[in-house]
Amino acid sequence: MQTVNDSNRASWGTDLWDQYDSLSVHTQLGIDFCEKFAGFLKERCIIEREYATKMKKLIKHYQPRKNEDTEFSCVRGFVAMIHELDDMAGQHDMIADSLNADIMTKLLTCIQELKQDRKKYLNEGAKQISTMQSQILALEKAKQHYDKAYKDSEKSKEIYQKSDANIQLSRADVEKARTNMVTKQQNHEQAKVAYASELQKTNQEQRQHYQVVMPDVFRNLQAMEENRINRVQEFIQKSAEIESHVLAILNTCVSGIKRAATTVNACDDSQLVVDKFKSGYVPPGDIPFIDQSCLSENGGNNSPKTVRPTTRSNSTRGTRIRASSRKRSGVFNLFGNKQDEEDGGDFSHLPPNQQKKRLHEKVKNIKSAISKTTAERDGLLKMQDVYRKDAKLGDPKSLNKQLEAVAQELDRLKQELNKFENFLAKAESRNLQTESLSSSNSNVSIASTQQTPNHSSLTITGPDSSLNNGTELERQNRNNSTSSENRRSRTNSGNEQDSFEDHDEDDTAALGMCTALYPFQATSDGAISMGAGEHFAVIEKDQGDGWTRVRRMDGEDGFVPTSYIDCRFSSSV
Q: In this structure, are residues 420 and 373 in contact, taking their beta carbons and an 8 Å threshold?
């Protein structure tokens, strides 16, 4: 089968024996095509690298910053997508490198070889053609000399015949004509022999030229051209393999982008918004009506003042302790900065839900640190055991200090864990109490009878029923001075330098009443604990630091978070 194919194969040496010039142009066009192919690859490599560079620059520009929130699924999906795109951009760099290393370099080498081989084969053909043309010129000269000798011989023969027939000529003239004829005939025979010899030589050269030498030149050019075509085929196939390899990685990246899209979940993001911003506070209940005539001794002002409802602005004001806020004297370690509270406190400065969240994170981090420290201790114990078995490896006692330090750290972490777990339990307990209080406050109602011109008929029901006729506030005002004097007397007798003594009697007068919305556990000097629903007298307003000074019915006073209470001030304040 292969023999049949070889016999049917086209041969430039046989079929194109007279197309030397055409083959010379064709082979030059083949080399030009290779150079064009190389130019295409060069520009494509530049484009691939530019695309990769610009894509990576774009991805870097849109990478989330450190202070950006990436916990939402849509943001995580976007980040995963651009990471996959970064990998895809890297594949374009790989395409450029592979094309340059595996194809471009070899193609340029192939072009140089083609140029050298073409020049060599064309020079051989040109030399052979020049030799053949020289031989043909020699044959033409021999033929011309033979033709001339033949004509001279025929002419001399004709002259001799005429001279021999002419009786008027002398015998010497006839003999002269005969000698000239014989000479011309000899020249003719010599020219004929020379022409025949040159013709035979030319024929041999021509057969050698068209049957051996030039077919070899054409076959070499054919082999060179077929090799060029095969190399181009190889380069195209190689580029396809490079594309195929990269395409598999690109498909993996595309699959990664599709997976990133499936991770985006609107419901989860909505829940994250709730978890992130939910304060844990309950909506404020109904605003009770306060008869200002019962709260103020000045009866001239009959226009009631609407109490301030608990809104987001004033419910969160007490949760932000600013370093620039003015500290009030006498309250030690109460107005510390936020970082100190976050590092060692129970995060009580945060809203209830955020407090629980931060406590959960703190407990999780401490447990992780305990696991790490436990693994470190186990590793040291194993190493110590190895030292005991083979003293050459080390001294077991050299690890005692490290083991002691690790044990102390482990004990400290366990104490921290226990502390923050207690904080978490208390926070959850307060949250339950708050929910219970919210449920009870939702049932509070205000009933009012038809008003008379002097507003004498008024009934208030609910947790603020102690303000029905203002007697409690009047009693509290009467007791303010006495209780304050007694406290200062006890303080001065004990030589305690408490800056609450800086307040005079007017400062301790009740400015209004308040009700605790949430339970609060005092952890600093100057603060007092309270339970949800407990009533207090307000003796000092919030001065912008998030704390209000209140007094219990038994005379105990201190500071509580403003956002944890609902205040009702008299109209004279």
A: no
